[in-house]
Design brief:
Blueprint (H helix, E strand, L loop, with lengths): L1 E5 L5 H17 L4 E6 L4 H11 L4 E4 L8 H14 L3 E5 H15 L3 E6 L3 H8 L5 H16 L3 E4 L2 H11 L6 E3 L15 H6 L7 E6 L8 H14 L3 E6 L4 H9 L4 E4 L3 H8 L4 E4 L5 H4 L4 H8 L4 E4 L5 H8 L2 E4 L12 H15 L5 H12 L1
Parallel strand pairs: 1-2, 1-4, 2-3, 4-5, 5-6, 6-7, 8-9, 8-11, 9-10, 11-12, 12-13
């Protein structure tokens, strides 16, 4: 079996949601091969990194640009012929269309679309398309990926509902596998020394955001939520583990003694998360967010943080309500933060292990492998 990615650069998310998945699948289905098409920019460095995470991976350059993906289908045909592998899990719309284009010539018998979100909606709502002509094609390509494959992974139940409403998907040949935690990571406990190092004392109540500064992260919404909390109580502190963004810069200038932004290597993030009291997962009410499975949700829980989440975020708003592991923040929600105690931290860590470890998804991965073999 081949796990195929196209245009995804190495990152903490890639290490957790691709390389680690390949290693895990190899425990159930030996000889799963990662094939990654990546940008020629920084190619040698990124190839070394990816092959370090997934030994034996085939890492190839995209030529000449990501929107000219068809030549990669010819290359992928050759890879399938050389390796003798005839089953493909394709992560995302572009990788899936590469696999579908290669299908006949490569002799591929089974293709699984690994659906990570509502891609056409995301490109329309947040203008993330790298090329205009690719944006014009993406809805048709997403429909092709959903309807023309043999099996599907969806990260949430609302994503399947989106497929049904948008593309007329009527099958039940899919499995729900949310974004999971990296295998083998030990639980992180709160460390007073880490809080002190970040400039927080025991009386402070620390709200943490960790992740990218992409448009769907809705920083204006985050800022409007945080501002009254910061004004009301000087003990409320905010830690952004992210890149720069105008909304973050604005709130930092308004509350310089209460807001901190850091950018740290991915392997250091979990220890810093554990220095907080809540994880922030606030997003606008758009299709992109309604079907999402944010990686940071499980990471917050694994660090012992209850989650402050918006209404209607994938399956996760309901999860918070059902398991009492945070607060749902709506337009009429009154919320007063308090220090998170040991009992709540332990509950969050337990929920992360029970519902978001790869072993928790063992039966679903087995179902995937079985259906790919049928």
């Amino acid at each position: 079996m081949i796990y195929l990615t196209y245009g995804d650069p190495p990152s903490g998310v890639y290490a957790s949601q691709v390389s680690d998945v390949v290693r895990y699948l190899n425990r159930q289905e030996p000889r799963v091969l990662l094939v990654a098409f990546i940008s020629i920019r920084g190619f040698l460095k990124n190839r070394t990194r990816l092959r370090g995470e997934a030994p034996g991976a085939w890492v190839l350059p995209i030529l000449p640009r990501i929107n000219y993906w068809r030549p990669s289908a010819w290359v992928f045909t050759l890879i399938c012929r050389l390796t003798g592998k005839r089953r493909v899990i394709a992560r995302g719309v572009l990788a899936c269309n590469v696999a579908l284009a290669a299908r006949r010539a490569a002799g591929i018998t089974s293709i699984c679309y690994d659906g990570r979100g509502a891609i056409a909606a995301e490109w329309e709502e947040y203008e993330v398309a790298p090329f205009r002509n690719l944006k014009r094609q993406i809805r048709k390509m997403e429909k092709h990926a959903v309807l023309m494959t043999d099996y599907r992974i969806a990260v949430s139940h609302p994503l399947v509902d989106y497929w049904r409403a948008s593309f007329g998907y009527q099958s039940d040949r899919h499995v729900i596998i949310p974004c999971t935690l990296t295998t083998g990571l030990a639980a992180v406990t709160a460390d007073p020394a880490a809080r002190e190092k970040l400039g927080f004392d025991e009386a402070d109540i620390v709200l943490v955001y960790a992740g990218s500064v992409s448009g769907w992260q809705s920083f204006r919404l985050v800022s409007s939520f945080l501002t009254p909390l910061l004004e009301r109580d000087p003990r409320t502190r905010v830690l952004f583990l992210s890149g720069t963004d105008k909304a973050i810069s604005d709130i930092t200038r308004a509350f310089p003694s209460q807001v901190t932004r850091r950018w740290v290597p991915h392997h250091e993030v979990r220890q810093m998360l554990a220095a907080g009291d809540y994880g922030l997962l606030l997003r606008e009410a758009r299709t992109t967010n309604r079907v999402a499975a944010p990686t940071k949700f499980a990471e917050y829980l694994a660090a012992g943080l209850p989650v402050l989440i918006s209404e209607g975020i994938g399956d996760y708003t309901e999860f918070v309500q059902k398991h009492g592991c945070g607060h749902v923040i709506g337009s009429d929600t009154a919320f007063t933060p308090v220090r998170t105690g040991v009992e709540m931290r332990q509950r969050c860590v337990g929920l992360a292990e029970k519902y978001f470890s790869k072993d928790a998804m063992k039966d679903r991965y087995a179902q995937l492998v079985k259906n790919m073999s049928a």
